Amino acid sequence: MKPAMRSTLESLNDLVSDISSETFCPEVFRKTGVFVVRNAVPLDVVDAWQSEWKVFYAQVLQKGRDVNRANPVSLNEQLPEGLAHMYREPVFANTLKPLMGDHIALYNHRFVIKDALSSNKVFLHQDSCYHAGNVNKCSVFVPLSIANKDNGSLTFHLGSHKLGVLGDAGEINPASFDVQWPTVTPELSPGDFIIMDSRLWHESGPNTSGIDRVMADMIIQPADDPTGQELISGEWQTDIFYSPKNLTRHFVNSRILKIVRYEKELAQLRAEALQVISQNDE
Ligand SMILES: O=C(O)CCC(=O)C(=O)O
Ligand SMILES: [Fe+2]
Question: Judging by DSSP bridges, how do beta strands 20-21 and 34-37 pair with one another?
C-alpha cells in the first residue's frame, strides 16, 4: 500500500467519532463524506412534519401505495403541501453555506421509507451516477422516525467519495478495491439530519423491527448547477437550465434506452416462442 493511502485511512479511522455533533464541521465532512447534525431542526417544525406524515400515511399510503419497482424505498406518491417543501427550512441552507457558499439550490426532494412494503436491504451504491449536472451534490437525509440497525438505518463507507464516480451504476463490490473504508451506521432521532456527499458509498439493512423508518432525502447543490430546481439561498449563479427529469429524452441512444429496447425485444421473443410451443401442442 502506498504511504499516502495509509495515512488517509488512519485519519479516517480517527474521525469515526467526530462525524456526529450539534455543530456541522466542514473539515471533517470533506474527509469522511458524511456528517450527522444532531438536534438541529426546531422541535415544533419536526412535530408538524411528523403530524403531516401520520395523516398522509393513514389517508393515502396505507390503502396500498404504488411501490417503486426499481427502488422500493423511494416513495412515488405526491407529497402533501406540508412535506413537499421541507428543504426551505432555513437550517439546511444555513448549515451547508460553509461547504457550498451563499448560493444554494435544490436538485431533488423525495422520501425514502422502509415500511412493510419496502423492508428489504438496499445494496451498496453511490448516487452520483444517477444524477445529471455537477458532481458536488449532497443528500440531506431528514428522519421523521427513529432510525437504527433494526429498522434499516443507513450505513456509510467513510472516505469512499474520494474515489469519485466509479463509471457504472449498480451494486459496488467493496472487496475489489485495495482500500477498505471504515463503516458507520448512525442511530438517528427526529431533529437530527445527515449530510452525505452524493459520491459516498452507502447501503442499508432490512427493517426487522417493524417500526417504519421514514426519512426525507433532499439533494442540494451550489446554485451554479444548470439542473437546479429551486433556489433555497442567495441568487442563481447560472442563466442556463435543463430539467433532470426524464433524462433519456436527451439521448439518441444510451445504456438506459438500450435496456428498454432489449426488454421489449425479449418480451416479443418470449411471446413468439410461446406461440410456437402452443402451435406444436395442437
Ligand atoms: O433508503 C435507503 O435505505 C437507501 C436509499 C438510497 O440510498 C437511494 O435510494 O439512493
Ligand atoms: Fe442512495
Answer: parallel
Rounded Cα gap, residues 101 and 155, in angstroms: 28
Q: What is the pTM of this model?
A: 0.94
Would you kindly state where each structural domain of the chain is located, as residue ranges?
3-245, 246-282
CB atoms within 5 A of ion ligand 2 belong to 127
Topology, domain 3-245: Jelly Rolls (2.60.120)
**What are the pLDDT digits (tens) for 209-244?**
999 999 999 999 999 999 999 999 999 999 999 999
- Residue nearest atom 9 of ligand 1, based on CA coordinates: 74
**How remote is the CA of residue 82 from the centroid of ligand 1, in Å?**
22
pLDDT tens, 115-170?
Answer: 999 999 999 999 999 999 999 999 999 999 999 999 999 999 999 999 999 999 99
Match 459516498 to its residue by C-alpha cell.
200
- Residue at 2: amino acid letter: K
